[in-house]
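Curious: why these numbers?
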Amino acid sequence: MTHVAYSDTLKRKVPANKASLVGAQSVTNYDCSAGQVPQLQLRVKPKHGKVTFKKHRYTLGENAGRCAGSSVVGMLVFYTPEKGFRGEDRFKVGFTMYRYHEGGERNYLADKYIISVE
């Protein structure tokens, strides 16, 4: 089993005083069928809000390459700023998943979110 680490920085603009969808994670198998649902963990908490996760079925968009249009079950990432807060907040979400099948290549991922609350 190979261990691979990935990290992305995601910048999002969200409105003040309401929860906003800021990210999603899912796994597809080699044949584009839905893979194992990733288990997300908040690695670094935001200073001015809260982060929640929700399991959800959705269709992959065009940035999913050859798997675009496939239906998957994944995890959505929501950010809710503190009431009245405006400005920048940051947090980090980490997760581990197997690529293609259980026992296959294991990936360790961490996405850093930079949120601009307007």
Summary: The chain has a mean pLDDT of 87. Residues 59 and 71 are 4 Å apart (CA to CA).
